[in-house]
Structures are given as C-alpha cells and as structure tokens.
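Contributing: when you submit paired examples, paste them exactly as shown. First protein:
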Amino acid sequence: MGSRIDILAVGALSRDLKPAFDHYARLLTPLCDLGVHEVREYALHGRPEAQVLRDEGRRLLAAWPRRGVAVALAVEGATKDSPVLASALQDWLARGGATFVIGGSLGLAPEVLARADERLSLSRLTLPHQLARVVLVEQVFRALKIARREPYHH
C-alpha cells in the first residue's frame, strides 16, 4: 500500500452521514492508508462568526500534518474533473502523501488557507462541510481507481 491520505476536519460526522463515509473508507482499504483527524467544532450560540472561525482555525493548525501536501477544500479552490484529480492525487502522494483539510460550517480561516499547499473545490455549489467529507472520500476512491486504470464499479 504505502500511500497515505489523511482528512483533517472540523467536527464529527453525523450518524446519518457516517455509513456513507464508512462505505467509501472501506473501499479505499486496499488502495491507501486513510486517516481521519477531527478537531472540535464550535457552535455559534451568539459568538461572533470571526471568533468561531479563528478558534476552529487554531485547532486545525495545531493538528496540521507534518508531511506531504496539505489540500484545503475551499469554494474558491481549483475545480478538477476526475481524471485531472487522479493525476494531481498521484503527484501529491509521490510528494509524501495528501492531507485534505475541511473547515466547519463557516469554512476555513484565512490562516489555514494561507498555510495550505493547494486549494481544491469539490463544486462551485456550497456543500455542507459534513457532506463535503463524504463527497471527498468518494472522489478520492474514484481518483485512485482511475490512476490504477481499474473500473470504478464496486
């Protein structure tokens, strides 16, 4: 195996979305080592959005990967079709692995975006951050299958 892919995310997945994520995580088992690291999500509850974003950003930066390429998921990031993502992912893995960073409901703090090596948009549509994690793991599975020239069907 040898290829390392990590997801660094704000918040835990809801029990409704966890089975979908787990499905693709299982499919990835023979293709790569997948790690998921979650930092606490802050509730707004009357707190200023800037403060919540800053606090979540600090937690993400404290858990920042020490190797490979850090890819921030951001609506203003580059959009890639599946074959182009497969190629980019192979490049990132060759550079020591890939860590995808997913913010909370407010997105990512500017400090987090500045520290990322790459920015990727899964869609020009705004996705809820938990759903983005499910879409991401499916797209990573698809990209690795494309890179291996294997059929996607599962």
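Second protein:
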Amino acid sequence: MIVSIHQPDYIPYMGFFYKVAKSDKFVFLDDCQFSNDNMHHWNRVKTPQGECRLKVPVEQHLGDSICAVRTRDELGWKKKHLKTLEMNYKKAAFFEEVFPEFEKKLSESYASLAEQNIAINTWLIQQFGITTEIYISSEMDIHTVREERVLDICEELGADVYFSGNGAKAYQKEEDFRVRNIELRYTDFSPMEYRQQWGGFVPNLSVLDYVFNCGFSMDFMECGSEK
C-alpha cells in the first residue's frame, strides 16, 4: 500500500499529479500552516513575455492553517485569472476542451483556500483518469506534527510505502519509518518536455499549461527514472 501526502496547492505542477498517480492512497494536508512562500495560493503560467504568476489574494493571520484561510473573492481575482488564461492559451490545442470546465470549477464558491484547491485538484485528478483514493487530513483526527504526523497518517491508512517529495529529506529519517515497517521512498519525478506555446520549453509550470497544450494525456508518467 503506497501512501503519499501533499498540501493543497493552487493549480500545481505535474510532479503533484505524478505523485498522486503513483500512490494507492493520497492525503491532502489541508490543516498544516499556510505559507506565503509555498504555492498554496499562487502558480505560474506562460505568456509571450515569459512566465506569469497567478496569485490568489487571501485573508489570513499568522499561524493559520490552509483550511482557515479565506480567498478574497470580492476583489474579482477569478475573472482576472480566467482572462489571463484565455488571452494566453486560447490557441492551444486543448483549450476549448478544458477551459469551460475549469472555469466552472474555479467560479464556484468555497469556504476556504484549501476547499477550493482540493476541489480543483480532485477534478483534475479525475480528468486524468487517476483512481487513487483521496483523503483530507483535517477529517482524520490526527494531531501530531511534521514527521510524526506523516508516520501516524501512514499507519492509519495501512501504508507499506510512504511516497515522499524530495523537500522532506531535510527532516525525515529513514530509520523512523523502518521502525514502523514503512519503506520511505522519494519521488523520481523530473519534468518532461512537451509542446508549449511562446518559444522554448519552460519546466514545472502549472498543470494548466500541460492540459491546455496536451489534454489529459498520461504521457507525463514517463518522466520518472523508473519507466
């Protein structure tokens, strides 16, 4: 049983979907602390001038969890994001197929940033045909932190393998997982080149850049070292 965990980021890059697809069970860590530096409320798309950051304005206080952060929809940011996407991707091969459904999903009302991101990302997971079981950490009644929390979630879900992002190497210890009979395995994702608009290839943009240009093809699964 392979379990992975990730914070609910805004329209994340393809490595997120690679991680989900390689897992049997996936957990949105929605009750961890919100960070302006992490991509909880922003991501990058491509324009003729290069990368463009789409940022969600939020109302939050120091120490708030992602599920406690409110998106400031009264500022009209959703229409601005949709307009930017339309202006820069309307000639992409799969834009007309993908954009209307994404527009509907983004335009819904959500109680929090986490709820919004989980709804959008779950929709995208389903569109790719990924059948991984999805869980939400705030619904699991597990209150430990950092590595201990990861281990407790893995045990709760019956994990034999924890499929981790590489950023966690700074604090995770393989021995701690071994003691609980869980194999710690890090992602082997590396970005593959695909057709993009506006010149040379830019890696690790939002998933929207991929699906507008390539549709919901699972070709990105070939970008790991284990083919």
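If you have annotations for the second protein, write them as plain sentences, like these:
The first strand starts at residue 2 and ends at 6.
Strands lie at 2-6, 25-28, 42-47, 50-55, 58-59, 70-71, 133-136, 161-164, 183-186.
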